[in-house]
Each structure stands twice: as structure tokens, then as C-alpha cells.
């Protein structure tokens, strides 16, 4: 109990100290370029409502799909300590195989290429 209280106190103290240091050392020099809604460095010439390419959304969905495998595979180190870890390892291998096949399919269909 003493160690837990020490760690909570240490992390709270460190968080408060770093936050105070950030407020103390931060440079607050707003100018017209920093206050403008566009951060690209030049004034907009055309409409801001241009349609996005569907490729951006496709890459975002692919990232989410392949990023979810981490959430599914995180418990694997603890699953190897079970009485029969082979079932868990077979399911994990199946998930990795399906994701690899999906990646190969997307790659062969040209879904990962930016230039056409």
C-alpha cells in the first residue's frame, strides 16, 4: 500500500510540475499569421469546399482495420500461460493470416498506391 501511495504521489507531483513548467516557459506571441484560420502559409485563392479524393478515406479505413489487430493480439502473452495455449495461438495465427490475405488483396487491387 505504501508503494502505491508513493507512485500516485510521484506521478501527481510530476504532472503538476510539468504542467506548471509548460505554462511558465510557453511563448505567447500571437501574430496575424498564427491567428489566421489557414495554417498553410498563404491566403486561400479558391473555395475551401473542394471535394476530397476518396483515396484519403480508403487509406483511413485501411489504417483502422489493420490497427485493430493490435487490440486483438495484445492478450497473447498472457494466453500462452494457459493450460492449453495451442487453441489461442491457432486463433491468433488465423487472425494474422486473414489480415495478411486482406493486405495482399488490397495491394493487388491497387488500393495502396497514390499515383496512378
UniProtKB/TrEMBL annotation:
Group of enzyme by EC: translocase
User: What catalytic activity is recorded?
Assistant: a ubiquinone + NADH + 5 H(+)(in) = a ubiquinol + NAD(+) + 4 H(+)(out)
What is the membrane topology listed in the Swiss-Prot or TrEMBL record?
Multi-pass membrane protein
Q: What is its EC number?
A: 7.1.1.2
State the source organism's domain of life: Eukaryota
Cleaved signal peptide residues: 1-19
GO MF term list: NADH dehydrogenase (ubiquinone) activity
Q: Any transmembrane segments, and where?
A: 52-76, 88-107
Q: Specify where it is mainly localized.
A: mitochondrion
What keywords sit in the KW lines?
Electron transport, Membrane, Mitochondrion, NAD, Respiratory chain, Signal, Translocase, Transmembrane, Transmembrane helix, Transport, Ubiquinone
One GO CC term, this protein:
mitochondrial membrane
Record-linked InterPro entries: NADH_UbQ/plastoQ_OxRdtase_su3, NDAH_ubi_oxred_su3_sf
Tell me the compartments it is located in.
Mitochondrion membrane
Stated family: Belongs to the complex I subunit 3 family.
Role noted for this protein: Core subunit of the mitochondrial membrane respiratory chain NADH dehydrogenase (Complex I) which catalyzes electron transfer from NADH through the respiratory chain, using ubiquinone as an electron acceptor. Essential for the catalytic activity of complex I.
The protein here is known as: NADH-ubiquinone oxidoreductase chain 3
Give the organism the record lists: Henicorhina leucosticta
Q: What is the lineage of its organism?
A: Eukaryota, Metazoa, Chordata, Craniata, Vertebrata
**Gene that encodes it:** ND3
Amino acid at each position: 500500500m505504501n508503494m502505491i501511495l508513493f507512485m500516485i504521489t510521484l506521478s501527481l507531483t510530476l504532472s503538476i510540475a510539468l504542467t506548471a513548467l509548460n505554462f511558465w516557459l510557453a511563448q505567447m506571441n500571437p501574430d496575424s499569421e498564427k491567428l489566421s484560420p489557414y495554417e498553410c502559409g498563404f491566403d486561400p485563392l479558391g473555395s475551401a469546399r473542394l471535394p476530397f479524393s476518396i483515396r484519403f478515406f480508403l487509406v483511413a479505413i485501411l489504417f483502422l482495420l489493420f490497427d485493430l489487430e493490435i487490440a486483438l493480439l495484445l492478450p497473447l502473452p498472457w494466453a500462452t500461460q494457459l493450460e492449453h495455449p495451442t487453441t489461442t495461438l491457432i486463433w491468433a495465427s488465423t487472425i494474422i493470416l486473414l489480415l495478411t490475405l486482406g493486405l495482399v488483396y488490397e495491394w493487388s487491387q491497387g488500393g495502396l498506391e497514390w499515383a496512378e
